[in-house]
Amino acid sequence: MLGTKTALAWCVVVVILCGLSCYQIIYHWKLQTDVLALLPDTERDPATAALRQIASGNLGRTVLFVVGHSQESAAREATRLLGEKLAASPLFVTVHWDHSRTQQAFFDLYFPFRYHLLSPSLRHDLNVPDGHLALIQRLKQLLYQPTSSLLTRFLEADPLLFFPALTQDWQPPKRKLHMQDGLLTAHHNGRWYHVITAQLALDPFATATQEQFDAQWETWVSSLQQTWPGIDIIGTSAVRFAAATQKTIVRDIAIISIGSLLGITILILGTFQTGRHLILALLPIVIGIWSAIGITLWLFGDLHTVTLTFGASLVGICDDYSFHYFTYHRLTTPWHAQRTMRHLLLALSLGAFTTILSFLGLAFTPLVGLQQIAVFASCGVLVAFATVILWFPYLLNETHPRAQHPPALYFATLNAFAFGNRYRKPLLIVYGLVLLLCLPGLWLLHVSDSPRALNALPKDLQEQDQFIRTIMGLSQNQTHLIVKGHTAEDALQKLEQLTAPLVDQPARPSVELGPVITSFLPSMKQQKANLLTVQRLLDQRPFLAQELGQLGFTEEVIQQFFHTIAAPPETFLTPELWQQHEASRGLRHLWLGDPSSPTSSTSLLVQVFHIHDPYAFAALLDKSEGIHYVDPVADFTRVFKHYRRQAAWLVSGAYVLIFAILVWSYKARSVIIMLPPVLAALVTISVFGWLGHPFHLIHLLMLLLVLGMGIDFTIFIAEGSLAEGPTTLLALTLSALSTVLSFGLLSLSGQAVLQAIGLTVLIGIAGALFFAPLAYYGRSSL
Amino acid sequence: MKWGGSLWLVLPWLLIASISAAERSATTQMPCADWETRFSQRLTHTTIPEPLVKILAGHKGYGFATTFTEEKRITVLRTPLTSSGQLVFLPPRGLYRQLQKPFAQELVITPDAIFQRQANGPTHTLALDALPGAKAFVSAFLALFSGSWDTLYTHFDVYFSHQEARWQLGLKPTNATMARSIACLVLEGQQAHITSLWIQETSSDVTHDHFLDPHMLPEPQWSNYQSQFSWAR
Question: How large is the ipTM?
Answer without folding.
Answer: 0.83
